[in-house]
Design a protein that fits this description.
Layout: H1 2-41, H2 56-59, H3 80-96, H4 101-112, H5 127-131, H6 134-153, H7 162-171, H8 184-199, H9 206-238
Length: 239
């Protein structure tokens, strides 16, 4: 009887010892992961604000107490009228640009920053040839498809409309190897908002439409920042 009790006590002690060793190992791993994550973010902090938007989540990333997986995007709250206006503006944009809004967005981006064509390996091409290249055309359509998904589900609380945008942001981490800087998203936001302002210029509901789109674009940028931070953290784990 005493022998059995002694064996049980010994096994319990060994189990506790293994648990402590595992806990120490996990702590060391998490500390290393945090250090790598912060190092990877050094080049992306203090991103200046754009014309209309800012990347506050990236600027505060080093001070976040939770991982990107635990972060939630800002709420996109639109009333029924704003939902209708937002969708109508998107439909007007697609009609104006022959259902190639994504291509027009990148046309305007390259007009402002021609050097960004190098991210897609088309720096030697003029803008129109670059936009029709296989790689870039696919990228413009992905952006447009994501906004299409957002428009369809913008009033459906049962669908997590943030997922596609977060995934898109995570995919952009890979582009850092080719010189991508998340600050470029501010150019995207400014261009899209300028297109919205242009297409709503003569509408009686212009102010409400642009306000709704300002909230929508801010939501998009916030989701993509979360995705980008996920990419950073995955990189830290892999290292």
């Amino acid at each position: 009887m005493e022998k059995n009790q002694h064996e049980e006590k010994k096994m319990h002690t060994e189990k506790k010892k293994k648990e402590k060793e595992k806990e120490k190992s996990t702590t060391r791993h998490n500390s290393a992961q945090t250090a790598l994550t912060k190092q990877a973010l050094l080049n992306n902090r203090n991103v200046p604000a754009g014309k209309y938007f800012e990347l506050s989540r990236l600027n505060n990333a080093e001070n976040e107490c939770c991982s990107a997986d635990e972060q939630k995007p800002i709420s996109l709250v639109l009333n029924p009228k704003e939902v209708i206006l937002t969708r109508n503006v998107w439909a007007a944009l697609k009609e104006k640009h022959q259902h190639l809004v994504g291509m027009e967005i990148f046309r305007q981006i390259f007009n402002r920053r021609p050097d960004l064509k190098s991210l897609f390996g088309v720096s030697a091409l003029d803008t129109e040839m670059a936009l029709n290249s296989t790689r870039l055309h696919r990228h413009t359509m992905i952006f447009q498809d994501v906004i299409d998904i957002l428009m369809v589900n913008i009033s459906n609380v049962d669908v997590n409309i943030a997922d596609s945008l977060i995934d898109l942001g995570a995919q952009h981490w890979v582009l850092t190897k080719r010189g991508f800087d998340p600050a470029y998203w501010l150019i995207f936001g400014d261009v899209l908002f300028d297109l919205v302002e242009n297409v709503t210029r003569k509408l009686p509901s212009r102010k409400r439409s642009t306000n709704a789109w300002r909230k929508t674009i801010a939501f998009m940028l916030d989701c993509m920042q979360i995705g980008y931070l996920k990419g950073v953290q995955c990189y830290a784990v892999e290292q």
